[in-house]
């Protein structure tokens, strides 16, 4: 950068010029910036002022001034310069969710690195996962610096990379993401991050972030083998009902207990347990490898917000095949206080497998909370009957989900009122819920669509390992 003009003897100091440049960038005033550089030259365009060592580019990015960012880059300012907290201008653009600025930086700045971490260990990509913007996340994931090799910890172009702590999770996320985008033709609709408020009345600020991906091989999502079943890449309505049931009505089951979620998919109920309770041990289990990667990514997105920080150390994501006892988490065998499950039985062959899992995992007095659609699930009746047949081992109670559990949990959905189902006007409201959820949850876009599934037709099933007479209750409205 060169001086365009020689300042007069009464010219302001470099610091004063630099400060004026920072102010102009903060307010996005390109004309002011041009005038300042025409008069005093470009030397102070990289000025770092005030607290924190921020540059003009930081301020323009943080405030979403696209024209100003473009102008600064054209003048040759350093695009990756980090401030004293290690945040680059890209960090700030992502943290403040300015998609157009993020796009510009990724296109124009040389050597930009979405895996560069700030002093708090957070990469730009991590910030992208934490934010609400799908567009920003997609831009970051598609950038060459998010290449899988780079995520493995190879040499990079920017500052530092995700190491062994976050790298695996992000790599998992990336692989899932890329496959999902491929599955959807790269249209960007394959990934959704939901922000869910599960107990609006008592804990309205507690938000669970859940990423769901396009269900792969949509023509045959169940696959040939159990491990090929990709239905867990999506969030099923039963999972939302179970999560709300758990935190609104069964919170006491969460504390100091060993919990296993079976076929966890996106892990909404299990992570809800960690967000609202104090489990002693929490196992997120599934079989499909893509689903497990996504569950890990969802764990990573929420672990900083668990009710108690100690929970983060006792959550395990593991591959578990109901048909293979060797795969059951050893520490969970015969030790589980609470088993969670939603929409797990949809083929007759699954019924005996699940019953076997419950027998092996639950300890005497343990409990299995299960939510399933009221109709359209092959094998569900066999499953319940199978439990009843087990020599009085299980006590089963079944009821229809009440309106209190059918609230729309999406943050900002205002769900409690519109989406609940007051008994008097049930029919009309039920129809409303279907539309509401379909729109907000992107369900119509998902390739797999089981029409009989919706929030309002999920039954709750409570199964206690009682070692006494079976008690089956059907509460029909
Ligand atoms: C319809 S999805 C439900 C996912 C999640 N519970 C929900 O409600 O969103 C069924 C889940 O069961 C898992 N699953 C199916 N067969 C399994 C098996 N043999 N062992 C372990 N998990 C299995 C699938 O991988 C899938 O995640």
Automatic annotation (TrEMBL):
Q: Which UniProt keywords apply?
A: ANK repeat
Q: Tell whether Iron is among the UniProt keywords.
A: no
User: From which domain of life does this come?
Assistant: Eukaryota
Record InterPro entries: Ankyrin_rpt, Ankyrin_rpt-contain_sf, Methyltransf_16, SAM-dependent_MTases_sf
Task: Show the segment(s) annotated as Disordered.
Answer: 405-425
Q: Name one Pfam family in it.
A: Ank_2
ANK repeats: which residues?
Answer: 52-84, 85-117
Keyword Ribonucleoprotein: yes or no?
no
Q: What is this protein called?
A: Uncharacterized protein
Native organism is Nannochloropsis salina CCMP1776
Its taxonomic placement starts with: Eukaryota, Sar, Stramenopiles, Ochrophyta, Eustigmatophyceae
